[in-house]
Amino acid sequence: MSKYILLASLISTPIVANEIAFTPTTIKIDGIAESTWDQADWHDIPYLIQGEQPSAADFSGRYKVLWDNQFLYVQAEIVDDILIDKIADPLERYWDDDALEIFIDSDASGGNHQFNHTAMAYHIALDNQAIDIAEDKSPRDFNDHLISQWKRSSTEPNHIIWEVAIRLYSNDFTDAKPLPPMPLKAGQKLGFMLAYCDNDGSDIREHFVGSHDIKPVNGDKNRGWIDAGVFGQYTLKNQ
Q: Is 109 within 8 Å of 228 (Cβ atoms)?
């Protein structure tokens, strides 16, 4: 993967409606970039959310998104010179290990989702466990919501491909009433954002970088786990 220079904009970028292409071929989640992905466009992960802006060698990333009737598919290409998973308990300070974070709002309705499931903020660890905050304000795993796998490049060990297939759920999903996943359909609007937690060996993560520029509230850009209104707006393209 070519090296790209990560630039943080000083002015909030307007949210632009984007289309996500349909795939008639089920994607195998194995960390290998199959040809099906060629129809999807690349999007960079350039915006600093928290911490210090990393160099391109420390962290850089980009991603693609596809969909079929069952899954939203995400492929991320990540350059990370140090992979850290130091906290064994997946429910303890999961944001301070290296993690791919995927934010989903299944109907692009926005709003506060901090302690409800009108939107999801999946923190996917290096062991592929997916954690979000439950309605009782404690973390829990949502491993049944997605399939995740990543793999190192055989020629560039700092370069990994991370693939995820995500099931979407309606706003009526609750921890007490875990409804079945909803089918995806052409024309459906989604809220979507992707970020990466990068730790190089410190007690807390040094960098938190995302795909969309977030307008700060009282100087804080770490709003994705609270407010689905900061996600990008996407439409599932016709088959």
A: yes
